[in-house]
Amino acid sequence: MKKIFLPILAAVCMIGLTACGNTDSADNSAASASAVKGAAEQSVQAEESAENTEKEQPADDAAVTEKTEEQSAADDAETDTGNDTIVVYFSATGTTKGVAERIASAENADIFELIPAEPYTEADLDWNDSNSRTTLEMNDPDVRPAIANDTVDLEGYETVYIGYPIWWGDAPRMMSTFVEAHDFDSKTVIPFCTSGGSGIGRSGKNLASQAGSGNWLAGGRLDANISELELQDWINGMK
Predict the structure, then answer these.
(1) For an engineered disulfide with 163, which of 73, 89, 119, 146 has Cβ 3.0 to 4.6 Å away?
(2) What is the pLDDT, as a whole number, of residue 19?
(3) pTM over cut 0.70
């Protein structure tokens, strides 16, 4: 860049000296030459500054990348709670949800709610209607309703509580969808249910058969209004 500006500067100076015959003109030419020289030097400095900035930019990008990776690692560490127990449940009306939350609190466990891809309406839950959605699903053991958010990773957990309402004496077919999609090998699985009066029946055994892995305990039915003492006694009895 300097090699380009210096010849131009010399040419300007020679033109200025030749064209002016008196002292004032020479002085003016010198001043003009000085101004041109100053402008050229400023231009060179600006060019060099831009080049230096471009050279430094990759280092700045590297620093930002390193910071992003460190932050990502920190976020992953926060996500990993270190718990070895999790409560996974489906609740159509909120009853099972309340019991699941109390178990998670008593066990200091993680908790995950399964959400159906197609939410159940009040009409869907009408067991008196032979054509209601739940009636049709429970009459067909091969139905597997889709789960909207089955992103739970059971790896690292030793104990898995699985909760659900009792429908027509069994677990909702969506629970079959869930257990068939996961590996319960080397895990203790404790099913629990809520209902208007029906016990857990064979629902836990049916899910165990569908899962094909894991140490499934008998589990049991838990009343929505179970006391803290009764709940803790039930939990202790599962260990």
Answers:
(1) 89
(2) 41
(3) no
